[in-house]
Amino acid sequence: MSRPQLNIKFDGEGEKELLETVKTRAQDERISLKEFVLDALKNRLTVHQATQATQPKPAVTKLEVDELKRRIVDIQISLMGEVRKDRKQIAALAQSLALIESRLYILDPPNLMTVEEDSQARQARQGETWENNAVEFLEAISWGDDNG
Length: 148
Known about the structure:
Layout: H1 15-28, H2 33-54, H3 62-107, H4 119-127, H5 130-140
């Protein structure tokens, strides 16, 4: 049974200095030159495998790309439908809240015993109902086309 062996000749330019650096690092880490070189080889193989895993896979076919595009369009259409439903629901809720707010104001009017409140301030507060805020909100949001 033979033992595997790796012989490396350091006779190129800068390779002798590299060998001295490797020996020094191995001594600093208190391991043998053999262990240092084996660790370096293992690390290099691990890095190589990690880079291979992140490299792009083989190209996809045109049929697969077309299918993905079709699915994306279907999902976009579905999302737009949901957004339209949500906008209608928000508008309906805003109207309901405005109606409730106006009925509460009728049921509990401001105290008449107090000095008459500045009518302009009261009108300004009443003008900012939930309905107006919701409409401003919906106008500020731009989803998809102008039709909805």
